[in-house]
């Protein structure tokens, strides 16, 4: 819907009058008065209505009414514009989240397709050549062993034949030996049987030659038998060795036969696996291709939607880039850093940031500060109550330096002196004290009816100021030189002991002297940054799960960010006077592309960034505009 169409629809509707809720105190008063005033109010209202009907409407009154209607319309327009922007950004974020999901899924699909295609090609390239070559080697080794087995068996056959021949020959020798021994026995028997000694001698003489021959034959036979037995033993040993070799060769042949069978079985298994794998991969790649095509279509549609919404946003908001509200993570802790509280603008910015954060987060934030204000807590508490937000946590440098476990009970009071002439300013309620000669001695300033400051004068010139906390304890003193310039500032613990002295030279602080509880100098810093750095080390700010918010020109904010190396993702930077120096702001954003979350002071500042930014960025308005007017686009301004 175009903006002008939206405005026409808004204009056609009657806008109900918006009322501002009364405070609880006013509510009670109104409740008490309602009973007594209902009747009179009704009568007065009727009289006024009758008078209004009779009174003519002037051109001026018409203009005022038109301006009021336009003001109401501008508020409606701003709200609708913000609602539309939020809706469009949410819709675009949804599409971008879907795009990211689809992109990641598509990357997974492409990676799977690539891996599957490579695996398919690798599987198709596989073959049994190596296995066949291995099988040929195994078969060749087996044939070689079979030939060796045949040779061994032939050798064993010949050896066994030789053993048989040797054994037969041995038996023949053994038979001859037995015959030889039998012949000897027969001769011995014939001699023993001869009774005639003479004949025995003749017979012995006659057989002597035969016996010698028998002994010679026996000796020869025994040698032949021994030699034959040794040969047979050697042959048997060779036969045993051949049998062992034959057994080993047979075992190797059996193993090679099994190995060949295993190779054949593995080749069949590999072949079947390749067929199944190739078929499965081809089906998977086809499925991936179909899914890829489907996701491409969805991604194309999402990209078209993103492009359409992006163009719509740019057309509607007249910006080349998207500017959205800063996202606040409620699970994180937010710390607002501030070193300056002196000017109205710095206070407005500080409370603007706190108010914005707590209104969005619905929980307290923490103020980390290094400025001095003797009524800091009262001011912050009252501001929080006025803005109906939680009271923020406060961590303050001077709070910690000035705290004491034994605070003094000595409270400030103005003594009575008959020599003094006292006057009170009607507007400020400040007290002026003079001597009898009308010479100004001191002035007393109040904060919520309690003494805040006492200024001491000499020759109508301020020389010293005492500053007191809400409990009436001395908090600080300021000493001035002859030219009314601040020369020294002292800060005290609540027990009355001095804790810090700041020395000034030509309005510039040149020394920060820190004292221990005994009044001895503990630290001496040349600059406030050194004091703050020392303090930050002592408190060790928790940078985990934290977001730090502050002005880039603020000393404390710079020190926290730089000394703790905090990522820009955990910071929100406040830019001041953006609409007046938009070119400098754009230059800053160009120089620091990591800056993505910004706070600005007014709607004009936001529109200035929307019109000039050259990248997407998150910007929120903390509404510290001094006049409270609503900034409208040029097309709606009169």
TrEMBL record:
Question: Keyword Lipoprotein, does the record have it?
Answer: no
Per the record, the coiled-coil ranges are 63-176, 204-305
Bias type Basic and acidic residues, positions:
1-16, 44-57
Keyword terms? Coiled coil
Q: Where is the composition biased (Polar residues)?
A: 33-43
Ranges where the record places region Disordered: 1-57
Listed name of the protein? Uncharacterized protein
Whose protein is this, by species? Companilactobacillus alimentarius DSM 20249
Source organism phylogeny: Bacteria, Bacillati, Bacillota, Bacilli, Lactobacillales
């Amino acid at each position: 819907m175009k903006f002008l169409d939206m405005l026409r629809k808004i204009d056609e509707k009657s806008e109900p009058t918006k009322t501002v809720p009364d405070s609880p105190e006013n509510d009670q008063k109104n409740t008490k008065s309602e009973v007594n005033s209902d009747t009179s109010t009704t009568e007065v209202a009727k009289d006024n209505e009758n008078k209004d009907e009779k009174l003519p409407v002037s051109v001026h009154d018409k203009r005022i009414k038109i301006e009021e209607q336009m003001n109401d319309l501008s508020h409606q327009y701003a709200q609708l514009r913000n609602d539309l922007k939020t809706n469009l950004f949410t819709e675009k974020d949804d599409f971008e989240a879907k795009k990211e999901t689809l992109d990641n899924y598509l990357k997974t699909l492409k990676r799977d397709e690539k891996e599957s295609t490579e695996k398919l090609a690798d599987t198709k390239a596989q073959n049994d050549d190596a296995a066949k070559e291995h099988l040929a080697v195994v078969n060749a080794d087996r044939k070689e062993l079979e030939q060796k087995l045949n040779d061994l068996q032939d050798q064993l056959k010949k050896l066994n034949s030789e053993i048989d021949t040797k054994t037969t020959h041995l038996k023949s020798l053994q038979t001859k030996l037995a015959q030889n021994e039998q012949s000897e026995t027969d001769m011995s028997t014939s001699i023993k049987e001869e009774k005639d000694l003479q004949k025995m001698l003749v017979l012995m003489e006659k057989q002597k030659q035969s016996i010698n021959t028998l002994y010679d034959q026996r000796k020869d036979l025994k040698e032949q038998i021994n030699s034959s037995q040794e040969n047979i033993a050697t042959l048997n040993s060779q036969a045993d060795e051949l049998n062992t070799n034959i057994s080993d060769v047979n075992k190797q042949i059996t193993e090679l036969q099994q190995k060949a069978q295993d190779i054949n079985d593995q080749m069949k298994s590999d072949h079947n696996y390749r067929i199944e794998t190739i078929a499965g991969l081809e089906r998977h790649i086809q499925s991936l291709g179909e899914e890829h095509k489907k996701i491409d279509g969805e991604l194309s549609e999402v990209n078209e939607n993103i492009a359409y919404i992006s163009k719509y946003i740019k057309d509607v908001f007249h910006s080349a880039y998207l500017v959205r509200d800063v996202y606040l993570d409620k699970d994180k802790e937010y710390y607002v850093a501030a070193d300056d509280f002196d000017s109205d603008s710095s206070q407005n910015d500080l409370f603007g940031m706190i108010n914005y954060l707590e209104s969005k987060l619905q929980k307290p934030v923490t103020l980390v500060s290094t400025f001095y204000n003797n009524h800091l807590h009262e001011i912050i508490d009252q501001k929080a109550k006025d803005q109906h937000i939680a009271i923020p946590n406060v961590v303050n440098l001077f709070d910690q330096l000035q705290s004491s476990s034994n605070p003094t009970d000595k409270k400030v009071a103005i003594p009575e002196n008959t020599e003094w002439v006292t006057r009170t300013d009607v507007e400020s309620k400040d007290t002026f004290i003079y001597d009898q000669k009308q010479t100004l001695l001191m002035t007393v300033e109040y904060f919520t009816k309690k003494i805040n400051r006492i200024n001491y004068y000499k020759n109508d010139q301020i020389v010293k100021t005492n500053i007191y906390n809400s409990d009436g304890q001395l908090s600080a003193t300021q000493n001035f030189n002859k030219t009314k310039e601040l020369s020294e500032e002292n800060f005290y613990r609540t027990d009355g002991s001095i804790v810090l002295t700041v020395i000034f030279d030509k309005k510039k602080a040149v020394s920060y002297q820190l004292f221990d509880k005994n009044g001895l100098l503990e630290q001496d810093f040349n600059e406030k940054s050194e004091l703050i750095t020392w303090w930050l080390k002592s408190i060790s700010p928790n940078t985990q799960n934290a977001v730090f918010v502050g002005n880039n020109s603020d000393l404390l904010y710079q020190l926290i960010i730089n000394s703790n190396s905090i990522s820009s993702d955990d910071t929100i930077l406040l830019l001041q006077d953006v609409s007046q120096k938009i070119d400098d702001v754009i230059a800053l954003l160009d120089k620091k592309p990591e800056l993505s979350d910004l706070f600005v002071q007014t709607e004009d500042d936001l529109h200035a960034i929307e019109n000039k930014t050259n990248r997407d960025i998150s910007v929120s308005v903390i509404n510290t505009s001094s006049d409270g007017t609503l900034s409208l686009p040029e097309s709606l301004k009169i």
